[in-house]
Structure formats: structure tokens, C-alpha cells
């Protein structure tokens, strides 16, 4: 089986698997690095996260004009220089605190006064609606801004500027002053407050200028609580980005400038420094409020999606579940987070969760292990899962929710599924096997496989088939009625009109026996090409030798085009001139080995040959090669096909030898010299007298000579049959050493002469051998 025989894991694109989370790790959104955030943005993301208009000069952080005439002298106007107080504080905070500030610790002051945050006031406006770049379209953190408008203390005033058109150059989600948390844009969507990258990942709010320290403490308290509220809402854990190289959920506008770019603002650093405050203290205050919020913990342990259902396992425990006995699971659209379907469930015990969160009332009975059925219109969509406790039996009011951030992807519902497991073709057979299941098969009882010419798109031929059992398909597609009997297998003989063509296959369920009428088809993408008829012309020389007398050749040669050409001729070619030297007709012999290797090659089993060619003057000294020819005529000069062998060989040229000799022995034994050998020469004819002449090697003068009778040497005659006198060319001599030989180095000359004395007309052979006496 291939692509169709899979179970799809939704939330990941893997198949037949689940995603798991340890039970002591509650569900939280993924925190990205700056590089990850920047590289994930495309041009469309940047476009929708960029304001329509540029912010004008002499305006605050979100574009509200600043009336410099109303600015108190105690507050330094913005110029091309840094804030003096901030600059001094950064370089010597003790000096700054001693001479310029007499404020108490802001966080301690807030803890002591225990401010109750105001309810969030919502006056929502659409402005520009765009999703976050995160997988679940929810923010990845919170950006803290300061309006930097020294004479505007009102959240409503700042918000109204945005609402009345200022949003086109910048807008944030919320404004916070000493009395109000005013939310004017849905935090489920991005805002234009901190450059394109920050806008695509973070919820954003502005802290409005405080009139005094008391108002600053309140504004800071409400801002920290609101930050904790957003982190809790979106299942994010507090972490300060500037302490982790830009990885965190709490960001200042200055942090965005540092790590993400797209803006050059540094708020709220200088504003905080005025009161001896900074982002680390703000982070501590956020953590304080985050820890005070009612516990709402959860984990989605696994998700497994099959054709028409999603199986989920996990848990959700919260402090506020008392008197909320009804539990629901919701599938929400992953982009809009609007409800698609809800499921009323019964919680199951989770001792492992209770062991970790024993102080949360319902932690023991917090689990869920449920199968969520999918309606037909719920396929090919992405979801997030939400767990809910409610006092309302219908789950509509008085609720405690937890939305998991895992994306659950449900694939398109399959009504007709199939797989071509194998589609092959050789010279004889086109074969196919696979399966095709359809929800309409019960209405269409007749099955066909239709072979289609892939080039023309036309039907070549159709074949009625009986479907075969496929239990593996039924296990994956239990909701398709015929899945268990959806298999097919077919082999058809290849005909000549199919050769060289490419084919694809359609599987059909039809209402009529001939495959027409009403039907449902599945067209497979697989294609196969039937091998074309390729004419072969092959051969090989097994042996090729040449001597003075004979050239031997053996091998085989067969040609698909030799049909009707039954005369086999071997042509000897001159390798230098490429001209024919001679030709001979040969008889072919059986070659079963060739037939086994090339079963489709014409007469491969009767392609052998062997021939011995006498060497004559035409062949002597030539480099030759061979052509094998099959022809329809005896003279092989018309209607023929050739095969040229690549092998070449040189035929040796016969040499005329005039004289030859060998000294087989020349040695001293005690006081005698012994020699033997042979000497034959064509010029010895009519020279019947033979001599061995002993020569002084130093002076090259004769010392003495011995008249000899030649002896029989059949061995010499066998090697030199044409050399005159070779059969009676032998000699042997033994003589005593006398004073004339003492201390001499001697060598020998063999002589044929026409004079009894050894003079007259002579033929000599001087042996290289020498002997010291």
C-alpha cells in the first residue's frame, strides 16, 4: 500500500501517530527566537503589519500631537539628546537616587497599597484586522509601551485619537492610566504599534503619563496585572525577553527595537527610570500577579484523527471549577477561534495530575479521554481544542475555559480512495495491482479496469474484473462500505500495437455490465511504457589467433534483421585500408548460451561459427578484422546486413632464413676440449666439406682446424624445414689440449667449403661462445 493507506495525525502532518506531553508540563504557547520570528515573515505579512500612513513628527508613541506649550518645565522635552535623568541613572543610579529622586520602591509601594485593578473596559474597533503569525493565530507575548505625551494623562483621550483616524499611522490594543484599562482592539488580532515583526507576534498596550508618583504606581500596577492577564489568557508563561537575548513573553518597545527592528523607540525605559523603575522590576510585578491568578492548568497529551473522528486525551484543572459540574470539549476554528462543535463529556480520574496539583480542588477528576465525532462539513479544516467547566447544563454561562494552542488538522474527507500498488510492463505482459474503494460502490456493482493511452487520453481497452479482498484497506477506511473488497490484479498480453506507447489506468464502478451508464472513476497518476520493438544486432569473437600458416576464429553473431537472409558469410578486412581481403561462406552452429542470454534475438541459439583460414600472401603481414554478413544471395553482395567485430589481429609474415646455428656445448674436461652443436645454411649447397676452426680470441687468428662429418639433427630439421642441410647439420668434436692452446681464449667457426682443404668457396658461422684454456 502507499499514500492512501494511512491514518492522519491531526495537529501534525505525520500519519498514524499521536503527539504527547508530559503531565507535569502544562500547556503553554511556543516562544520563538528573534531570528525565527523574522525569518517566518513573508512580504504579505510585512505589508499587513505595516501602518497605512507614517507617524508625524512631534507626536507621542502612537501619533497623538504633543502641545509643547503645555509641557511642564519639570519634564524635559524630547530633543536629539537622551533623557538627562535616564542618562545619569544608567551611569550612576546611586548618585541619581540620592540627588534627584525621593520615591519609595514602586513594587513595595504597590504591594503595600494592594491596588484593586479596574475592570477592563471594552470599546472595540476593527481598524485593520490581521492574524498573528503563530500557528494558532494567537499572540506570542506582550509589548509594554509608554505614550511619551507629558501633558496627556487620559487613556480615553489617547484612545479617541486612534479611533478618530489616528489608527492609520499607529494603534495598539489597550491604553492604561491611573483609573482605566481601556481595550479598543481585539487582542486576538495584531496591532500597528512596534514595527512589522512585533506587530505580527505581540499584543500591545500603552501606559499613559502619570500626574504623580501615586498615579504612576497605579498605572504600573494595572499594567502589570493586565500583562499577567494576557499571558494567562493565551497560555503563556512570564519571561523577560531582554534577559534571554530576545526570547521571552514580556517585551518593552525598546526590546523590539533591539531584537526585531522596524522601529527606533526606546520606551518605556526613560519613563520608568524617572521613578527609579525598570523592566526587571516590572517583570517581577507581572510574575506576582500571574501567580495570584486562579490556577487554570491543562495538557493535551495526545490527538489521533481518523476518517470521521478525533480522539483526544488530556486534562484540565482549575481553581474556579467549584459549582461548575458540567464539562465540555469544544472544537474551535483555528483562525477565528469560533465554536464549530461542542461535546459534553464526563471527566476521568488523573492521579498523576493530582500528585502535582493537589491544592487544586478538581485536579483528581480533571482528565478527559474522548472520541469527538466529525460532521461532514468539518473535514479539510484546522481546529484548536477548548476545555470548559460550567454551571450551565448547556455549557453557555458561568464558565472556566482553557484553549489549547495545538493545531489539529483534519484532512479532506475521502469518498473515493485508491492506490496503484504496482504497474509494470515488459515485452510480453502489462500488469497492474492495487485497490479502489468508493462510497458509491454499492450502487455500481460492475467493476472495470480501463487502459488509457497517456498521450492521446483515449481508451485502449477495458477489462471486466472481480474485486479481491483487502482487509488492510478496510482497517484504514472502515466507513467506506466496500473497502474490504476493493482490490484488483490484472495481467494482459502485450500486442504489437501497444509497443512503445505509454499507458495509465482508470478503475471504474459502473451501473451496467458494459461499464457505461452511471459510474464512478478513479484515474491513477501512475504511468507505464510498454517497451518498443528494438532490433538487435549482436556478436562476439570467442577466440582469434594467427600463425604463419593459419588464422583461427570462433564466436557467434545474430541479427534480428537476418530474417529471410540465410547465407552467412565471414569477410576478412584489411585494418589499415578497410578493404576486403577475402570472404568465405560459413555454417552456423548451436549456441544455447547465447539463446539464454538473448531469448528474443533472432536465431540466437544457432548463431555460432568457427573457421580456419590458411595464410597466404594476401594475409601475410596484414592487420585484419572481420565482418559477419547475413545475405539473401549466395555471393553475399545484395540484400544483406552486416556486423563488424571490433577485434583485430596481426598475421605474421614468413621470413626466409639463409643460415642458422647453435653451439650446444663448449667445455674443457680435464685435458680435453669438448664441443657439439649444429650449423645449416642455404649457401652450403655444393659445399660438401665441413670444418671446425679453432680461433684465438685475442688475436683472431686460426690456431688449428678439424675436418668433420656432419651428423643427423631431426630437431633442427623440424624447426627449419626449408633450410638447406638442416637435417644433417650436427657436429661433435673432442681434442686434447697441447702447448699451443695453453693460456689461450678460444672460439669456434663452423665452415662449409667446396675445397677439401677448407679453403676455396666457403660459408662460415662464427659462434659467440668462448672458452678459456
Structure, described:
A six-stranded mixed sheet has the order 1-4-3-5-2-6, with helices on both faces. Strands 9, 10, 12, 13 and 14 form a five-stranded antiparallel sheet that branches. The protein has 773 residues and is of the alpha+beta class. The two termini are 97 Å apart. Helix 3 (84-91) crosses helix 4.
Short description:
This protein has 15 helices and 37 strands. It is an alpha+beta fold and 773 residues long.
Largest sheet descriptor: 6 strands, mixed
User: Strand sequence of the main sheet, in spatial order?
Assistant: 1-4-3-5-2-6
Helical residues, percent: 10-25%
The N- and C-terminal alpha carbons lie at a distance of 97 Å
Which blocks of ≥5 consecutive residues have pLDDT under 50? 1-27, 70-89, 93-100
Q: Would you tell me the overall average pLDDT? A: 90
Radius of gyration: 53 Å
What percentage of amino acids are in beta strands?
25-35%
Q: Name the overall outline.
A: elongated
SSE topology sketch:
Layout (H helix, E strand, L loop, with lengths): L33 H7 L2 H6 L35 H8 L1 H7 L6 H8 L6 E3 L18 E6 L8 H9 L10 E3 L4 E3 L11 H5 L2 E6 L5 H21 L16 E3 H7 L9 H6 L4 H14 L3 E10 L3 E10 L7 E8 L5 E7 L5 H6 L10 E7 L7 E10 L8 E5 L4 E3 L5 E10 L3 E10 L7 E8 L5 E7 L5 H6 L10 E7 L8 E9 L8 E5 L4 E2 L7 E10 L3 E10 L7 E8 L5 E6 L6 H6 L10 E7 L8 E9 L8 E5 L4 E2 L8 E11 L2 E10 L7 E8 L5 E7 L5 H6 L10 E7 L8 E9 L8 E11 L1
Parallel strand pairs: 1-4, 2-5, 2-6, 3-5
Antiparallel strand pairs: 3-4, 7-8, 8-11, 9-10, 9-12, 12-13, 12-14, 15-16, 16-19, 17-18, 17-20, 20-21, 20-22, 23-24, 24-27, 25-26, 25-28, 28-29, 28-30, 31-32, 32-35, 33-34, 33-36, 36-37
Helix pairs in contact: 3-4, 8-11
Amino acid at each position: 500500500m502507499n499514500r492512501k493507506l494511512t491514518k492522519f495525525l491531526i495537529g501534525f502532518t505525520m500519519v498514524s501517530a499521536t503527539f504527547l506531553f508530559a503531565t507535569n508540563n502544562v500547556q503553554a504557547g511556543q516562544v520563538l527566537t528573534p531570528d525565527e520570528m523574522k525569518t517566518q515573515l513573508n512580504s504579505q505579512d510585512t505589508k499587513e503589519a505595516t501602518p497605512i500612513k507614517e507617524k508625524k513628527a512631534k507626536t507621542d508613541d502612537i501619533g497623538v500631537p504633543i502641545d509643547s506649550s503645555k509641557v511642564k518645565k519639570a519634564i524635559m522635552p524630547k530633543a536629539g539628546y537622551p533623557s538627562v535623568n535616564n542618562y545619569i541613572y544608567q551611569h550612576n543610579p546611586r548618585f541619581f537616587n540620592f540627588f534627584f529622586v525621593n520615591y519609595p520602591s514602586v513594587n513595595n509601594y504597590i504591594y503595600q497599597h494592594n491596588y484593586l485593578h479596574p475592570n477592563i473596559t471594552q470599546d472595540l474597533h476593527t481598524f485593520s484586522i490581521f492574524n498573528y503569525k503563530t500557528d494558532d493565530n494567537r499572540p506570542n507575548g506582550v509589548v509594554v509601551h509608554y505614550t511619551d505625551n507629558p501633558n496627556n494623562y487620559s487613556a480615553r483621550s489617547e484612545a479617541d485619537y486612534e479611533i478618530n483616524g489616528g489608527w492609520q499611522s499607529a494603534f495598539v490594543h489597550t491604553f492604561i492610566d491611573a483609573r482605566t484599562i481601556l481595550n479598543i482592539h481585539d487582542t486576538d488580532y495584531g496591532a500597528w504599534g512596534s514595527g512589522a515583526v512585533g506587530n505580527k507576534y505581540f499584543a500591545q498596550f500603552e501606559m499613559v503619563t502619570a500626574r504623580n508618583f501615586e498615579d504612576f504606581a497605579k498605572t504600573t500596577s494595572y499594567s502589570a496585572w493586565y500583562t499577567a492577564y494576557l499571558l494567562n489568557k493565551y497560555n503563556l508563561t512570564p519571561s523577560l525577553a531582554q534577559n534571554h537575548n530576545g526570547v521571552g513573553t514580556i517585551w518593552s518597545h525598546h526590546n523590539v527595537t533591539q531584537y526585531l527592528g522596524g522601529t527606533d523607540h526606546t520606551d518605556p525605559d526613560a519613563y520608568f527610570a524617572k521613578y527609579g523603575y525598570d523592566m526587571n522590576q516590572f517583570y517581577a510585578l507581572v510574575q506576582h500577579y500571574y501567580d495570584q491568578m486562579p490556577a487554570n492548568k491543562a495538557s493535551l497529551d495526545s490527538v489521533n484523527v481518523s476518517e470521521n473522528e478525533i480522539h483526544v486525551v488530556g486534562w484540565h484543572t482549575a481553581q474556579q471549577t467549584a459549582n461548575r459540574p458540567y464539562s465540555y470539549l469544544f472544537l474551535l476554528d483555528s483562525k477565528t477561534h469560533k465554536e464549530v462543535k461542542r461535546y459534553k463529556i464526563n471527566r476521568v480520574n488523573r492521579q498523576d495530575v493530582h500528585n502535582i496539583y493537589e491544592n487544586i480542588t478538581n485536579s483528581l477528576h480533571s482528565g478527559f479521554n474522548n472520541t469527538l465525532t466529525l460532521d461532514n462539513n468539518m473535514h479539510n479544516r484546522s481546529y484548536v481544542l477548548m476545555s470548559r467547566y460550567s454551571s450551565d447544563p448547556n455549557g453557555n454561562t458561568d464558565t472556566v475555559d482553557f484553549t489549547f494552542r495545538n493545531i489539529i488538522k483534519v484532512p479532506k474527507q475521502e469518498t473515493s480512495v485508491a492506490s496503484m500498488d504496482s504497474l509494470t510492463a515488459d515485452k510480453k505482459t502489462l500488469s497492474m495491482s492495487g485497490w479502489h474503494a468508493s462510497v458509491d460502490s454499492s450502487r455500481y456493482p460492475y467493476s472495470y479496469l480501463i487502459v488509457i493511452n497517456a498521450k492521446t487520453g483515449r481508451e485502449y481497452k477495458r477489462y471486466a474484473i472481480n474485486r479481491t479482498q483487502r482487509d488492510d484497506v478496510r482497517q484504514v477506511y472502515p466507513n467506506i462500505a466496500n473497502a474490504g473488497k476493493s482490490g484488483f490484479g490484472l495481467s494482459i498480453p502485450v500486442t504489437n500495437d501497444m509497443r512503445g506507447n505509454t499507458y495509465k489506468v482508470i478503475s471504474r464502478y459502473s451501473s451496467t455490465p458494459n461499464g457505461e451508464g452511471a459510474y464512478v472513476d478513479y484515474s491513477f497518476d501512475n504511468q507505464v511504457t510498454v517497451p518498443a520493438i528494438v532490433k538487435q544486432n549482436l556478436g562476439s569473437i570467442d577466440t582469434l589467433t594467427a600463425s604463419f600458416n593459419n588464422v583461427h576464429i570462433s564466436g557467434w553473431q545474430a541479427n534480428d534483421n537476418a530474417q529471410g537472409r540465410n547465407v552467412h558469410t565471414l569477410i576478412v578486412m584489411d585494418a589499415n585500408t578497410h578493404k576486403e581481403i577475402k570472404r568465405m561462406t560459413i555454417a552456423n552452429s548451436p549456441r544455447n548460451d547465447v539463446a539464454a542470454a538473448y531469448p528474443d534475438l533472432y536465431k540466437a541459439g544457432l548463431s555460432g561459427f568457427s573457421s580456419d583460414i590458411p595464410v597466404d600472401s594476401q594475409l601475410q603481414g596484414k592487420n585484419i578484422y572481420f565482418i559477419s554478413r547475413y545475405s539473401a544471395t549466395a555471393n553475399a553482395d545484395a540484400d544483406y546486413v552486416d556486423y563488424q567485430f571490433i577485434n583485430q589481429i596481426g598475421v605474421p609474415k614468413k621470413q626466409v632464413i639463409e643460415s642458422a646455428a647453435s653451439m650446444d656445448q663448449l667445455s674443457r674436461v680435464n685435458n680435453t676440449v669438448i664441443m657439439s652443436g649444429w650449423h645449416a645454411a642455404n649457401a652450403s649447397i655444393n659445399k660438401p666439406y665441413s670444418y671446425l676452426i679453432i680461433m684465438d680470441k685475442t688475436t683472431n687468428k686460426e690456431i688449428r682446424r678439424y675436418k668433420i662429418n656432419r651428423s643427423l639433427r631431426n630437431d633442427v630439421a623440424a624447426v627449419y624445414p626449408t633450410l638447406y642441410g638442416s637435417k644433417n647439420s650436427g657436429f661433435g668434436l673432442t681434442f686434447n689440449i697441447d702447448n699451443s692452446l695453453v693460456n689461450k681464449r678460444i672460439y669456434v667457426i663452423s665452415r662449409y667449403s667446396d675445397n677439401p682443404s677448407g679453403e676455396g668457396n666457403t660459408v662460415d658461422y662464427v659462434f659467440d661462445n668462448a672458452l678459456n684454456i
